[in-house]
Specification:
Elements lengths: L2 E5 L2 E5 L6 E5 L67 E10 L2 E6 L5 E5 L3 E5 L23 E6 L3 H4 L1 E10 L2 E12 L5 E10 L14 E3 L5 E3 L7 H5 L10 E5 L21 E4 L4 E6 L6 E5 L6 E4 L38 E3 L5 E6 L12 E5 L4 E8 L2 E8 L10 E6 L5 E5 L4 E8 L2
Length: 443
């Protein structure tokens, strides 16, 4: 049985396949009378820093750049570094609900046969079929610390998965005196009762720090087979200052070999008092990262405070400034650290947002289903409850578009963004009744 409900230009179609629902949306069109919604039921509790719902000066917005900046007296270092002009691709698409009933899903990756591995923040990993059926939780994962922003985070396949069956995941782990971000790997054993075997925790962030905030974390494989792990600085003042301390892994992006060992060509190998795992430093909380398919370089989008979410290209050995330099202001209103946005020897973001979007998950689009979207960068918005599309010209952001501002039945926090094997755009929505959505060309 198929039912179609039409509201203005919006049609809701409920299909007969289990777990599948389709919403047809016009490009950039909102349903008549639509208004932004509050946080969806089940949104994680706790303060908004680094990924909570609707921080001051952020949150849902209709249109683009309709709000004043939180720090109106701050000037970008270069023209076009913020508030790019709206550039719509005028793409009409359907939003298909692939699966639902996930509890705060966090990370997604595709198996070779098109099924998905999806993490849930409370510590469960599931295999999801293409028609939306959820497996029982995959057995064998270590315990996770689910306080605040902690839990089971990103998921990735080994580049040689077809031969070795290894999967990798990042998570927050309890340690004596606190907790930290960690990465584990194990062999996936598929079947009616899936499990992972021979689990090894290959990376522990140090030092252990007591906080429920800013764990990061995304896992991205470089073209050379090394693994980038993005992290946070744990938010508290003592933690944020460690983003500039080179004997600490807080506030760093690290680069590892597949077995957790340190690549010999990492920038600080052999330097006294410096952790050899470090690739780049001065980061606040990185929950979005992907490899640029055109250049092979790692790109990331990290949470700022109140008006400082930023896009960076984290290059070997470079300092990205936090907390010495930053755009925006503290959540409570005062200036950040010394109130400066530029300093010699510290890298500038290629783009930043004020107000915030609260970024999580990103993907460069290279598929053929949406020719007008090719080479766009998609970023999930938690506080903004929409999907952000950036138009790029090399390393510059030259346009921005906000999608899913008319998502039905309500706007949702977008936690992860991936391109599917068929060229669809897949999204995870972050709430206690989370969904896997995919964007398909409008029928």
């Amino acid at each position: 049985m198929r039912r179609t409900m039409t509201v203005g230009v919006l049609a809701l179609v409920i299909g007969s396949a289990a777990g599948l629902a389709t919403t047809s949306l016009g490009a950039g069109q909102a349903a008549p009378g639509a208004t932004p919604q509050g946080p969806p039921p089940g949104a994680p509790p706790g303060p908004p820093r680094g990924g909570g719902f609707a921080p001051p000066g952020g949150g849902p917005e209709v249109g683009l750049n309709t709000r004043p900046p939180n720090a109106p007296n701050q000037k970008p270092a270069v023209a076009g570094q913020t508030r790019a002009p709206e550039r719509k691709a005028n793409v009409a698409f359907d939003v298909v609900t692939v699966a639902e009933g996930l509890v705060n899903p966090w990370g997604l990756t595709f198996l070779p046969d098109g099924r998905m591995l999806v993490t849930e923040k409370p510590g469960r990993l599931r295999i999801v079929t293409t028609d939306g059926k959820l497996s029982e939780p995959v057995a064998g994962l270590p315990m996770v610390d689910t306080q605040g922003q902690g839990g089971l985070l990103d998921i990735s396949l080994d580049p040689a998965f077809s031969k070795n069956g290894l999967i990798y995941w990042s998570f927050s782990e309890a340690r004596e005196g606190g907790n930290n971000t960690a990465v584990a790997r194990g062999k996936l054993v598929d079947g009616a009762a899936p499990k992972v075997e021979n689990v090894q925790v290959i990376y522990h962030q140090v030092p252990t720090f007591k906080s429920a905030l800013h764990f990061g974390s995304r896992l991205v494989w470089g073209r050379d087979g090394t693994l980038f792990v993005t992290q946070g600085e744990r938010s508290d003042t003592a933690g944020r200052m460690q983003a500039q301390k080179m004997d600490s892994l807080l506030g760093k992006i690290v680069r590892l070999n597949a077995d957790g060992s340190v690549p010999k060509d990492n920038p600080f190998v052999g330097k006294d008092g410096v952790r050899p795992e470090i690739w780049s430093f001065g980061h606040r909380n990185v929950q979005a990262a992907a490899l640029n398919p055109a250049t092979g370089e790692l790109w990331e989008v990290e949470h700022g405070t109140r008006g400082g979410d930023e896009v960076n290209i984290p290059r070997k050995g470079k300092d990205y400034g936090w907390p010495t330099i930053a755009y925006g202001i503290e959540y409570g209103g005062p200036q950040i650290t010394g109130g400066i946005q530029q300093q010699a020897g510290m890298e500038q973001p290629i783009y930043y947002w004020d107000p915030n979007i609260a970024p999580s998950g990103m993907a460069f689009y290279t598929g053929s289903l949406f020719p007008a979207w090719r080479n766009s960068l998609f970023i999930g918005g938690l506080a903004s409850t929409n999907l952000v599309r950036l138009t790029l010209d090399g390393d510059k952001v030259v346009g921005e578009e906000r999608l899913l501002q008319d998502l039905q039945p309500t706007r949702e926090r977008i936690r992860d963004v991936r391109q599917g094997p068929e060229g669809a755009v897949y999204l995870l929505t972050d709430n206690a009744k989370g969904r896997i959505l995919k964007l398909m060309p409008k029928k």
